[in-house]
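Protein modeling request. Please complete all fields; requests missing the sequence field cannot be processed.
Requester role: graduate student
Desired output: 3D structure, token encoding
Chains: 1
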Amino acid sequence: MGVLAHGLDRIYPPQNKNLAKQMTAQGGLLTDFTSNTSPDKQNFPKRNRIVAGMCDALIVIESGKKGGSLITAELANGYNKDVFAIPGKTTDTRSEGCNYLIRHNKASLVTGAADLIELMNWVPKEKRVQKKQRELFIELAPNEKIIVDILQQRENIQIDELYFKSGLSSSAVAAALLMLEMQNAVISLPGKVYKLA
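Delivered output (197 residues):
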């Protein structure tokens, strides 16, 4: 899919016309702008909110210190999307944005497709390593019990709803989820969604 920062009556830059045709045949082109809208500078950050909203995971491959990719990454973080970045040399200005995201915990570091597949839990079922069965009689801390009780009522739940339903602080929920994952009681899914193991 391609998301344009102008109307569908043009392709910018013009050398991307063949790429646009391929995208139309295999997915499509989207825009929030009417025909005759020029690809003005202010349209690109507006366009980026659509990119951030429609993706399962956002990967920043290359970005300067103030690149539009950083705006998209911030939006994706705000939408609770998984954000990843490929690191680069510290002296390379085209990697400053990626390194910034990783350094400030706004993106997870990935070095290739295998990292992404593992982090997003996209491993095909036949290739998955058999996980240990959840212990039947684990001792739960009070906050962990609150989380488990909520998860028992739903097949899965998104992190924001978990914050709301639990009434716990975000750090308390994160700590409880980490402990539950370590005990093989909870599984983390793409999009910051959780379910009982």
